[in-house]
Write a structure and sequence with these properties.
Strand content: 15-25%
Largest sheet: 7 strands, mixed
Number of strands: 11
Shape: globular
CATH architecture: 3-Layer(aba) Sandwich
InterPro entries: Class_I_gatase-like, ElbB
Number of domains: 1
Structural class: alpha/beta
Strand order of the largest sheet: 5-2-1-6-7-11-10
Distance between the termini: 13 Å
Organism: Dromas ardeola
Protein name: GAL3A protein
Helix content: 25-40%
Radius of gyration: 16 Å
CATH topology: Rossmann fold
CATH superfamily: Class I glutamine amidotransferase (GATase) domain
């Protein structure tokens, strides 16, 4: 029997939900590792809905669980029903939904609040010493909840290749150790069983992002 890995989504679409390519890469790599993905999302309204053509918010309202079900092909459960006892690991892909729907990082940065359901799930896996994989912006959740942990969101110096590098500086302000890594690399915090990779925090070809996520998934499954 393969490892059972919870994948927590935050909607559907980079600007207001889970990043679709990252989420798909996680599911493909889990399948390749012989692991069984169990997809969850919170049953809450999105912070807002963004028109992905214009990059602008609209007046629409959407539900995080309903939108995430698009990525999960309908095979999804309410995050409130997640039971850590039957699961071996946790992975949270990136996308602005992590900073908007799973937390308030998008508007409050290091002073953000992580949603109680998400915080409870992260703490449950951590307490059970089960590995947690995070990519793109989702490492900020661990930065907020596990002070002193080691993480990567890529590089800490902003440039064309690393447009979101200030995130690393903010995570350091929370007391975390940020480790600079290329997009195809991962960082493993052995003590906290956290595996992180930068994904779309980097302006990189999509196959490099896919490869970095593959290394993250492989290590999470190995640690499980």
């Amino acid at each position: 029997m393969g490892k059972r890995v919870a994948v927590v989504l935050a909607g559907c679409g980079v600007y207001d939900g889970s990043e679709i390519h990252e989420s798909s890469a996680v599911l493909v790599h889990l399948s390749r590792e012989g692991a069984q993905a169990e997809v969850y999302a919170p049953d809450v309204d999105q912070m807002h809905v963004v028109d992905h053509v214009k990059g602008q918010p609209t007046q629409e309202k959407r539900n995080v669980l309903v939108e995430s079900a698009r990525i999960a092909r309908g095979n999804i459960k309410d995050l409130a029903k997640l039971d850590v006892k039957g699961l071996d690991a946790l992975i949270i892909p990136g996308g602005f939904g992590v900073a908007k729907n799973l937390s308030t990082w998008a508007t409050q940065g290091k002073n953000c609040i992580v949603s109680k359901e998400v915080e409870d799930v992260l703490k449950a896996f951590h307490a059970a010493k089960k590995p947690i994989g995070l990519c793109c912006i989702s490492p900020v959740l661990a930065a907020k909840i596990f002070p002193g942990c080691e993480l990567t969101v890529g590089h800490d110096t902003e440039c064309e290749k690393w447009p979101y590098a200030k995130t690393a500086e903010t995570m350091k302000e929370l007391g975390c150790k940020h480790v600079n890594k290329h997009v195809t690399e991962i960082h493993v915090d052995v003590k906290n069983k956290l595996v992180t990779t930068s994904a779309f925090m980097c302006n990189a070809p999509i196959h490099e992002i896919y490869d970095g996520i593959g290394k993250m998934v492989k290590e999470v499954v190995r640690l499980a």
